[in-house]
Each structure stands twice: as C-alpha cells, then as structure tokens.
Amino acid sequence: MTWEVLIGGMLVVFLVVYALTGGADFGAGVWDLFARGPLAEKQRHLISKAMGPIWEANHVWLIAIIVVLFINFPKAFAQLATALHIPLTMMLVGIVMRGSAFVFRDYDQAAARLTWSRFFSVSSIATPVMLGICLAAISSGTLPFDAAGEFSGSYLSDWCSWFTVAFGLLTLAVFAFLAATYLTTRTPDRELQECFRRRALSAALVTAVLAWVAHFAAAAEAPGFIQRFANHRAWLPFQIGMALIGIAAFGLLVTRRYRLAQLAAGAQASWMILGWALAQFPYLIAGQTSVYDAAAPQNVLQTTFWVFVVGSCLLVPSMAYLYRVFAFNQVPDRS
Fold first, then answer.
1. Looking at beta carbons, which pairs linking 37-42 to residues 24 or more positions away fall under 8 Å?
2. Which residue from 187, 202, 172, 138 is spatially nearest to 329, judged by alpha carbons?
3. Burial environment of residue 331 by CB neighbours within 10 A (0 to 12, 13 to 18, 19 or more)
4. Are the C-beta atoms of residues 250 and 272 closer than 8 Å to each other?
5. Would you say 199 and 254 are in contact if contact means Cβ atoms under 8 Å apart?
6. What is the spatial distance between Cα 187 and Cα 311, in angstroms, rounded to a whole number?
7. Which DSSP symbol is given to 192?
8. What is the C-alpha separation between 223 and 34, in angstroms, rounded?
C-alpha cells in the first residue's frame, strides 16, 4: 500500500467517524424541528441533554479532514475549494449558525428561544444536505472548474443536479436515522423511547427510498460513478452486507433492542460511506484528479501519517473518556 492510498484511507476513516458523531448531532436538529405534541418539550430537552456536553468536540474530525486534505493533496484541495466554493461556504455558515443558535436558545430570554430553536433546526438540516451535495459533486465526474467561464457554469452547474440533491437528501436521512436510533438509548422514559423508535423506523424507510432515488439519478447523470462501483470486485459483498445490516437495524428497532440497534445503525452509515469510497477510488475528484496526481511529496505524506498516529494516541482515548463521562441513562438491551 502506497503512502497516497494510506493517507486517502485516513480521510475516509475521519469521514466515517464524523458521520457517526457529528452527523448524529445534525440529525438531532431534524427531530428538534419536528418535535410536536405533549412530549415536544421532553423531546427537545433530551436532544439538548444528549448533545450539550460533546457536540462541539465532534467537529475535530471535520477539521482533521480539512487539514489532511490541505497538507497532503493541495492540488485537489484548491480545485474543490474553488469549484465548490458556494456549497462549502453554506455548509460552514450552517455549522456556525447551528452552534450559535444552540447556545443562544438556552441563555436568551424565553420569548426568543423558539426563534433560536428554528435557526438551530434549519441549519441542522441545511448543513448535512450541503455535505452530501459536495460528496456527490466530487463523484459526479462533472467538476472541472473554468475560471474564465460564466458564473453559473463555473460555480453552480457542477453541483446543482438531481444526483447531487438526491445524495444530499440521502445524507440528511441517514443522519436523522442515526440520531433517532441513538436517542432511544439516551432515556429510560418509555414514551420518549417509543417516540424516537417510530421516528427511526420512518427515517430508515425514507433512507431506503432515497438510496434508490440517488442510485437512479447517478445512473443518469454520473454513470462513471456507478460503473466504477459495479466493476469493483467488492461490489457484490458490499450489496449483500448493506442489505443484511439494514434489515438487522430495522428488525432490532422493531423488537426494541435499542443498544444493538444503535450499533447496527452506525454500521449501516459506515458501510454506506465505505461503499462511496470504493466507488470513488483512486480519485479524489472523479475522472480528473487521483490520489497519485494530487499527492504532496513523500516525506510530507509520511510525516503526516506518523503525526496523526501519535496524535491519535492522545485524541482517541480523550474522546472516548469524554463520551463515557457524559453518557447518561444508558438503556440496557432487552434481548
């Protein structure tokens, strides 16, 4: 395995961890928006309590992705930051707005809290959609940037398509599914558990539908992405694994085995990202820039790898301890 591939694998690992942690936080914002009925305040309180201590720390994985891409694949970083300037900016604005609203709604006057809740929820929805759009645009094969071209052709058409929008909505649905499943394990209240269980089941069905929509949209607008994946030797095992994990997650929710359902939901999200990475390899920008074309000198790649290995020895135990300290009311699995 070359250093370029190894560093590319690090990016995929960071993306998986960010989806499982920060992605679930974004999904919680979706359910904050749809909190209704007599349990609405309890739902919002549970969401705030589950997110409050750790949600900012989860962005460390997004920062790691940006840093590793900038240092080790500067050519690809420049291309992406330019061609996807608008959705990336919208994503970052959403992250800032979401964080600010989450804090302000707890400390502002009571009359303003509903407004801050709306800002929090809307930005929690828009941000993962923009993330999914960026990932789809990278895979579409239509991303070449022409600085001398028209504004719409240079900054809009490459990421505004049915495929990218479908992928963005799929990303949102996956995050909502993760959040609802996680929240079933964060309270001993049976009513709240049932509420989020139903929402997790609904999100699972929506995710399945959007996955097919994204597949057909990709076949029409990004055939190279589908072809690379279909020609990969891991295509059949991946499809079988995805089906089995999805069925397992749904069945565990139906039978109220919440802790196991949480593990299955995380496995499903991870499996989807790994499938995307398999279809993408060896390209950082499909059909244009590979990990080999955009890589920095070998000494930079090697130094980055060992820095992150040593840093992970501090970061991973610290994050694990943080999650353990602030975990509360964990619900035992009812096998």
1. 39/191, 39/192, 39/195, 42/189, 42/191, 42/192
2. 187
3. middle
4. no
5. no
6. 34
7. H
8. 36
Summarize pLDDT for 273-293 with one digit per residue, the tens.
Answer: 988 888 888 888 887 888 898
Per DSSP bridges, beta strands 289-290 and 283-285 are antiparallel
Q: Which of 199, 205, 228, 188 is nearest to 329 (CA)?
A: 188
CB-based contacts of 76, cutoff 8 Å, min separation 6:
69, 284, 285, 289, 294
Q: Which amino acid is at 132?
A: G
pLDDT at 335: 38
- Gap between the Cα atoms of 77 and 69, Å rounded: 6
Query: How many CA atoms, within 13 angstroms, populate the side-chain half-sphere of residue 321?
Result: 6
What is the residue-wise DSSP string for 266-299?
A: HHHHHHHHHHHHHHHTTEEETTTEEHHHHPPPHH
Place of tokens 């992250």: 95
Q: Which residue has the tokens 């690090």?
A: 10
Q: Any idea which of 110-119, 275-284, 321-330 has the lowest mean pLDDT? A: 321-330
Structural tokens at position 184: 């079933």
Q: How far apart are the first and last CA of the chain?
A: 42
**What radius of gyration, in Å, describes the C-alpha atoms of the chain?**
20
Does 207 score more than 60 pLDDT?
yes
Q: Rounded to the nearest 5 degrees, what angle is found at the Cα of 212, between the Cα atoms of 208 and 215?
A: 135
pTM: 0.87
